[in-house]
Amino acid sequence: MSYDPYPPHSYPPHSYPPHSYPPNSYPPNSYPRHDASPPYATSPRQPPAAPEPAERRPRRHPALGHHSDLRILRSAYRWQRRTATLTALGYFTLFLVLSAFAPSFMTGTVVDGLPTGLLLALLQLPVTWLAIALYEHTARRYVDPLADRIRKHAELDAKREEAAAR
């Protein structure tokens, strides 16, 4: 299908014939290229154009927003949450499933009249404490060192920006 940039009829802007472009609208690369003329001041009182910014040296370190340590920190924090949550909720879900589907096991006695269900229910509190301890351990071991390293990088980047601004 060929395109005629000068249609034989001029149509109102709201009604175009099918298979045509609206007036003064051309498909890409169908019109001659013109070099833009330099801008001229429209008023003698117009302020002068802003000077071009000085050329800066490229950064040696990527900006904090693009830092790979942030991805690593998010991943470590995600694993920390999953581990602690699955520890606590996994045990509680196991207790509920045993209560619903194995009532004979839960009513059985362990020691001198202590039912298995009561023993497992009493163990819920230590398991929750274990999940909290696991959360704190992974925070100290993996997440906090990464956060400290990112914080130090951010402080160094801020100092570099401040020194470059002077």
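Second entry:
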Amino acid sequence: MNERMTKNANAAGSDHDHPSVGAVMERRSTDSSHLTEPRTFVRVFTGPGTLEEVTAWYERLLGVDRDMWFTYPERGLALAAVGGFLLIEGVEETVAPFRATTGTLLVDSAEKYLTRLKAQNAEILTPLHRVPTGSGFTARHADGTVIEYVEHRPTPDGR
């Protein structure tokens, strides 16, 4: 596992409620504008205090290190990405609103996909808004699938 990510993730605190403690952001790539195709994430929900254990399990399974770890204090969540999995830690009350979303697509431009989806008469469930990693929105496709679209951009301090 990336030593820098591990050190900073552990700095967030080892207590079980660390998602609400303060913002922590570690990403291998801070800007998704270079993507030539979306990166698909399958969502995996995990209980309080289990993100490190679950992350390590997926790292062993896939043979890759996590490439993203961050807290989302406003929502009481902590998240990590390992390969095609987005691991989401929180208590049931904080993860419940996210369970109806089938998956997440990391895209080069959220605005571009928002325009495409509107042109295809998709239902925009959550309008474009700021998220810890950049911006995103949630849409229901014509077949009923609910997908979160996000773009990553560097934070003001470059993370």
